Amino acid sequence: MTDLDFENWTCPVPLRDTPAVVMGHGGGGAMSGELVQHLFLPAYGPIELTDSAVLPVGAGRIAFSTDSYVVKPMFFPGGSIGDLAVNGTVNDLAMSGATPLYLSVAFILEEGTLLTEVGRIAKALGAAAAAAGVRLVTGDTKVVDNGSGDGVYLNTSGIGTVPDGVTIAPTRAAAGDAILISGDIGVHGVAVLSVRQGLEFETTVRSDTAPLAGLVSAMLATGADVHVLRDPTRGGVAASLNEIARTAQVGIEVTERSLPIPAEVADACSLLGLDPLQVANEGKLLAFVPAAQADEVLAAMRAHPAGAGAHRIGTCVPAHPGMVVARTALGGTRVINMPIGEQLPRIC
Amino acid sequence: MTDLDFENWTCPVPLRDTPAVVMGHGGGGAMSGELVQHLFLPAYGPIELTDSAVLPVGAGRIAFSTDSYVVKPMFFPGGSIGDLAVNGTVNDLAMSGATPLYLSVAFILEEGTLLTEVGRIAKALGAAAAAAGVRLVTGDTKVVDNGSGDGVYLNTSGIGTVPDGVTIAPTRAAAGDAILISGDIGVHGVAVLSVRQGLEFETTVRSDTAPLAGLVSAMLATGADVHVLRDPTRGGVAASLNEIARTAQVGIEVTERSLPIPAEVADACSLLGLDPLQVANEGKLLAFVPAAQADEVLAAMRAHPAGAGAHRIGTCVPAHPGMVVARTALGGTRVINMPIGEQLPRIC
User: What was the ipTM of the complex prediction?
Assistant: First the structure.
């Protein structure tokens, strides 16, 4: 889905001649039905949605995840709240080693939101689901009065199946693990912020929103014993590394120089007083693997489009358990703290 | 959970001395973690929540459902948005014949909402989940700026397992089916409206919010071939019956006199110009069963606390496919239309 498609997409039918969401669209009656029939379903593609979808699964373990999305603005360079809602939940599933299968999608619409905007978001959702290989199977739409929302809020929940023998969890991080990242960091946050603040860069920074399940499959196909996977979204790389260090009670040491921060991201962050390590990513993952298997996993990552920029950024160490430390270019160290509050509100 | 508990419940810890939600609670950093650790988890009870929960399921079919909740006000006689969010999704699963197992819970908090209110809602969620026999397994919290929300919006998604041989779907409604209802109608909508409009009745009308999975189990245990189950929430009995009639292309005939509308509901509706058949219920179900098995199913319903007030209200007929008709006390008929928009916004 390109930006051009968003621009040109219009509602397939004039829904009772209203160009905008009205309270009646949330009533569970005829208008609700029309919204699903004439807007959501055509936008999603050829699918069926039911209140409660009945789905086949194999015996074994499933992964189950949920996220709400409140990103502002709803459209930004490289994506929209629709893509984000699919990729974010697909990625949460993938981070537990699961193959994502099914998604639910629930809209909270603010009265007065243009139906063309709702439609573009729904179309982005459908396209992202197709790209990620997941099926939208159940949905819900609520409408809140003008001034009690902000355009469109989304929730997606997802179900995947976890292959036998796969156990990926933050508790498994261990001294000696190599820490890998799949590519450049800070891109999503800066892309959203650039439109929000009206910043101009020499080249447009586009969100990295992307599904990561394929990359994870490729990594697991090496047979390596992947200990931890994490997509560093809200709170960025700093929050993810700190959470893992605390949960597993290991020390983490990263090499500052090895952190792949694009120049535009570094510039924007220094302009705005942000720490790029705390900026959200929406298409990157951190992986903790035994050092002996790191090269093999890195090679598999680099061979996949979503991991072309993969790097090793650090190591788990027995020293300073629960703490994340960066080794600077001059050979010194500094602590990377857990972010406290919110430097970039409503980034996802 | 009684109203008294709501009133007396306070936050377990003063979270950084702020009595209200701030943007930082949504940042994915330390403050987000504190909210989960010190507020959500103690409120929910002894559970574990992860970004992506890995769960055992048997082979076979699962049911998957989602709903967002935006009810206003968040607390009303007989319940709160917390109970509603559990029971609503549990009931969607039960309506496909599934045994509900797991729930996700996602909050969208408006900046400035009192943490004690968030805590009371979380406590109601935990208590309702325990009462319904489902586990809260994964969650998410987002914060939106003041004026872009309205206190607390919730989403719950749910997973259940569908027993072999059970196929319950609106397409299965067939001429000859008896139509049963599990009890009084219109209660939830009038309960919410009474606080919203400051209405006073002789007796307080309390929401009927309740989980229905136990009732459904008892009905299925009779061995009857239950064709359709539906909980008449938004749009009420009128919307549910019309949807089923259209989907299955059968005619539906209900006996007006047999509709169990309590006097308080009838009074409130006539005062406010509402049709009680369009008012939301949150603890009732409609069942379509072969006429020959109706008595047996009704007996099982009446023997269960959630179905004590069960009645037969109508029949599926070959005439007027797709249309719902009421037979009046005088022997005439009137059409029960699909509600168009929204007579009671934000009722669930």
Answer: 0.94
